[in-house]
């Protein structure tokens, strides 16, 4: 052990053999995290519902190496999902150094138009599932002196008219991040990345037919004048995972948002 409490057997290359669980790993930001982490040498369990997307992303990461990537198709809101993911992580990875809670549900609607199932679904996917997964993986994370990175949103710190429940679910995730950072210290670090608008399928799913108009409004309200790339967010997720750079960082909410929340 070194003074950060981590196993020093890894030597100078802090990513080789690092074991990550990444939810929502089959598309967008999660897929970019899987690619980057495996590219740095980590072993990744990529979780999501669509087996075909996970298979594609993990096969590519596996082929490019030097790390490994294994798919696991499961709905993170299923009653036994957290326990099943913890079991699979133990079997496939032999332990966990980092959990990236990235799976997210976004339905953009005025409160008076929103379906109750969507409101409940956003809280289930964006808050309850991450919390249950952290809890299920805690023994493994404590054993490795590991970390959690929650993929939240600027929507959790800005007013979000017409997207209030999405924003509220991410604000709750931000609160969970800060509280657990203190509760789980010093064994487990807990941080969050707060992306601004990133060019992923979430926008098509989130805004339906109004997606183009919403995109234009978003770009004009973003100081850097464009949508971000999934890889630009993945870089910061991995930076917070990296024991070489972030071993003294916990409870941080890091905006990666083109200046949107400035
Ligand atoms: N794009 C943005 O502008 C933006 C901005 C701020 C924050 N974020 C956050 O970034 C995260 C990733 O979103 P993205 O932009 O990369 O969009 P995305 O490509 O739609 O990714 C969302 C991922 O979550 C997975 N997912 C959703 N519900 C799930 C469930 N119940 N169980 C398991 N997996 C589930 C989806 O996979 P399956 O459908 O296969 O399950 C998908 O891979 C989300 O938490 C989102 O809120 C995105």
From TrEMBL:
SUPFAM superfamilies xrefs: NAD(P)-binding Rossmann-fold domains
Gene Ontology terms, MF aspect: oxidoreductase activity
Signal peptide (UniProt feature, chain positions): none
InterPro entries recorded for this chain?
NAD(P)-bd_dom_sf (IPR036291), Sc_DH/Rdtase_CS (IPR020904), SDR_fam (IPR002347)
Q: Does the keyword Phosphoprotein apply?
A: no
Q: What is its EC number?
A: 1.1.1.-
Similarity remark: Belongs to the short-chain dehydrogenases/reductases (SDR) family.
In Swiss-Prot or TrEMBL terms, this protein is called SDR family NAD(P)-dependent oxidoreductase
Phylogenetic placement of the source organism: Bacteria, Bacillati, Actinomycetota, Actinomycetes, Kitasatosporales
């Amino acid at each position: 052990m070194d003074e950060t409490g981590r196993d020093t057997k890894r030597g100078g290359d802090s990513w080789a053999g690092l074991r990550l669980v990444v939810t929502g790993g089959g598309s967008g930001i999660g897929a970019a995290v899987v690619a980057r982490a495996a590219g740095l040498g980590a072993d990744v369990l990529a979780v999501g519902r669509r087996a075909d997307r996970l298979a594609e992303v993990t096969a590519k990461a596996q082929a490019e190496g030097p790390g490994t990537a294994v798919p696991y198709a499961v709905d993170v809101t299923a009653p036994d999902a957290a326990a099943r993911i913890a079991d699979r992580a133990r079997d496939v990875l032999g332990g966990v150094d980092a959990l990236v809670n990235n799976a997210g549900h976004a339905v953009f609607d005025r409160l008076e138009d929103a379906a109750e199932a969507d409101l409940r679904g956003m809280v289930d996917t964006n808050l309850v599932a991450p919390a249950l997964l952290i809890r299920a993986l805690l023994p493994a994370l404590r054993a490795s002196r590991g970390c959690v990175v929650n993929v939240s949103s600027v929507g959790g710190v800005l007013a979000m008219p017409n997207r209030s429940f999405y924003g509220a679910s991410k604000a709750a995730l931000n609160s969970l991040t800060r509280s657990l950072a203190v509760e789980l210290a010093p064994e487990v670090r807990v941080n969050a990345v707060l992306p601004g608008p990133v060019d992923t399928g979430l926008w098509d799913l989130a805004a339906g037919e109004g997606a183009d108009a919403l995109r234009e409004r978003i770009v004009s309200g973003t100081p850097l004048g464009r949508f971000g790339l999934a890889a630009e967010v993945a870089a910061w997720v991995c930076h917070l995972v990296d024991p070489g750079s972030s071993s003294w960082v916990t409870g941080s909410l890091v905006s990666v948002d083109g200046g949107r929340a400035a």
